[in-house]
Amino acid sequence: MTTSFSLKALIAAGLFGAAGLAIAHGNVTPQAVDTGDLPNLGDEVLIENPFREGNAHGDMQEEAVKIGESAYAGNCAGCHGIRAMSGGLTPDLRELTIWDDEYFITRVRNGTDRGMPSWKKTLDQNAMWAIKTYVESLPKPE
């Protein structure tokens, strides 16, 4: 009888914990992003991060990381976790590589059929690339 009660308690605790994580990764109210002194990237969607060192605006990388950190906290952390540590419910953005730039910008702009909203009406590509630059600055998962 004690084993049966313990098993039920363990299952209930697991379900409660999972529900809490699901709520923590809930809806996000889009937050405006002040892209500050970053150069205007125009309307044509770029497929490579312009703020990465060695690219067109690599000299703005430090500024992009600062802006991206704030933009990420206000728009992405609710689902993808603080400092991009998702906890397994959504993709771990720290695992993206420089080869994933086009994948990243396409998913952020258009959303997915698995629950990620489209951000193209809320974030301009300056903000999107600043977020990618911030994520690239984080330590990779072990």
From TrEMBL:
Whether Metal-binding counts among this entry's keywords is yes
Mind listing the GO molecular function terms for this protein?
electron transfer activity; heme binding; metal ion binding
Where does the signal sequence lie? Answer: 1-24
InterPro entries of this UniProt entry? c550_proteobact (IPR030991), Cyt_c-like_dom (IPR009056), Cyt_c-like_dom_sf (IPR036909)
Domain (Cytochrome c) ranges: 63-139
Origin superkingdom: Bacteria
Keywords of the record: Heme, Iron, Metal-binding, Signal
Q: What is this protein called?
A: Cytochrome C550 (Soluble cytochrome C)
Q: Which organism is it from?
A: Marinobacter nitratireducens
